[in-house]
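Hello forum,

I keep getting stuck at the same step: I have a sequence, I want structure tokens, and every attempt I make locally crashes halfway through. Rather than fight my setup again tonight, could one of you with a working pipeline run this one for me? It's a single chain of 97 residues.
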Amino acid sequence: MRCQHLACLPVLLWACAAEPPDLPPMPVVPSPEQVRYQEMELAGFVHRGPLARQILRALDLPEDGSPDRGPPPSRAALEEVYRALAVCLGRGEIFGG
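Reply #2:
Ran it on my machine without issues. Output:
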């Protein structure tokens, strides 16, 4: 029973040795909506910083990683920030922190 798969071996070897077809390159061109979205994302990243920094800002935590941050945020504060993040993601908007 183990040898039944070996019957395919010559075909597989032939397929791997064959030259790939000579196809012309197909450029990927984003739609105008995709370009606008990418520009919006880039602008948000440049102006607001990465998402982690925005979350720290929303929780009033220091962004520099200093050890004296004070008490950790409450569970209610974390839920509020992550709920706002989920709403932004659901609407396709940038999280403002």
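The chain has a mean pLDDT of 82. If your local run keeps crashing, start a new thread with the error log.
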